[in-house]
Amino acid sequence: MKRLPPLFKTATLTLLLGGSSVFVPSSLAQTGGSATLTYTVKAGDTLYRVATERGLKPEDLLRINGLSSATLSVGQTLKLPSGMPAPAPAAAASPTPPNPVTSTSVTPKPVAPAAASAPGSNVIAGVTVRVPARLKMGDGFVLRLSGERAGEAVVSFSSEVGEDVRMPAETLTPIGAAGEYQVLGRVVLGKTTPLVYTVKVGNDVLRGSIPVSGLDQPIQHLTLPKSLTDRLTAPSRPLEEKVVEAAYALRTPQAWSRPFAAPLVTTAVSSSFGQPRTYLTGGPVLYHYGMDFPAPVGTSVRAVNDGRVVIAGTYPVRGGLVAIDHGAGLVSLYFHQSRLLVKAGETVKRGQIIGQVGTTGLSAGPHLHLEMRVRGEATLPTEYFNRLWP
Ligand SMILES: [Zn+2]
User: Fold this and answer.
1) Average pLDDT over residues 213-228
2) Distance between Cα 103 and ligand 1 center (Å)
3) CA nearest 365: which of 21, 11, 22, 17?
4) Quick check: 224 and 212 in contact, CB under 8 A?
5) Measured in angstroms, how far is the CA atom of residue 125 from the centroid of ligand 1?
6) Which residues neighbour ligand 1 (ion) by CB within 5 Å?
């Protein structure tokens, strides 16, 4: 099993052929002596990743630390089993993907859906629960609740405890009114095990599962010039990751009430979301977390919906970056811009121009890289356009 600690959390490489972006994991620092090993949680860490990089099961790490939730906070100290081998030193130069599809030893296992609902038995305490019949990795989706007590429900996706998710199995409060409520869900890239959801209304609990399929994209093997990959080790990379992780952690009220719109007027779409790739010969397999829209430098970039600008700045990998918090745990990110026309803290409306297309950061051609992150995890952007929910 590979134990190389990842050096980078998120990196974007844009290629000449339509452009593409790649994300690689964050630096993990190992601390602790030989008797009791501990690990200090860094920005972007997930319980899943901390555990699997050490050959542990996420549920064992929870148990050892007496944790009831898989949510980690930066600076938190985790106990590791004594006598276990430490991961390789952080000097290792090759970045490791967050979800290596080539690795079979860290395949996430779903939490057993004890008392999972039989098909059709999706009613709990008078509340009807509707979910998609099937999902693909990287899907955003909506769990719908209807009925008089739908607003009392709390929802969690319990299978996330065994996955590479930032805040697994978070307790989610439905959004809505008048007996019709929604909870935004997502399937992390790399996951093909069933998604398990839990709905609680008062003392009643409903559990169900949804099958998940892969994207069936063959791995692309690419080679990049050093001038681009050098951006991955720029001194301000840790700050870049810290800034986006802070945006992913936001849980503000839903700010939109109209369908989402495309971020620019173009017919050219490089639909490479979720594409697994290697960027170095024999290098790790990495996913593409966004969608690329090739367009000339200077083309207007527009907010996909109402929200608040939480990032507007230039970074080594993402280049000219704007991130908009739409509330409900949904953040849209616009990479590689040549010009930014909004400032952090500003409220924006759907369709408002926020910047211009460019080729800044880790990019080799003018395009917009758009990401739609649900509670920090990447979802397929086109699922949102012209719809109120994905
Ligand atoms: Zn891209």
Assistant:
1) 83
2) 24
3) 17
4) no
5) 44
6) 21, 290, 292, 369
For each of the domains in the chain, give its residue range(s) and CATH number, in order of start. 30-80 (3.10.350.10), 123-213 (2.60.40.1930), 220-383 (2.70.70.10)
Contact in structure between 169 and 157 (CB atoms under 8 Å): yes
Centre of ligand 1 to C-alpha 244, Å, is 16
Question: From the CA of 21, how far away is ligand 1's center (Å)?
Answer: 4
Q: What is the model's pLDDT at position 15? A: 29
Write down the pTM of the prediction.
0.75
Distance CA 153, CA 151 (A): 6
Extract the tokens encoding 263.
């971020």
Give residue 250 CA to ligand 1 midpoint distance, Å. 23
CA 175 to chain centre: 21
Give 162 Cα–ligand 1 centroid separation in angstroms. Answer: 27
Residues 172-196, mean pLDDT to the nearest whole number: 94
Q: Calculate how far, in angstroms, residue 13's C-alpha sits from the geometric centre of ligand 1.
A: 7
Quick one: pLDDT band at residue 20, thresholds 50, 70, 90? very low
Residue tagged 């080790």 (tokens)? 233
25-39 pLDDT tens trace? 222 223 333 345 788
Give distance in angstroms: CA of 278 to centre of ligand 1.
14
**SS3 label, residue 52:** helix
Cβ atoms 350, 304 nearer than 8 A: yes
For residues 193 and 337, what is the distance between their CA atoms, to the nearest angstrom? 36
Q: Which two tokens stand for residue 56?
A: 């542990």
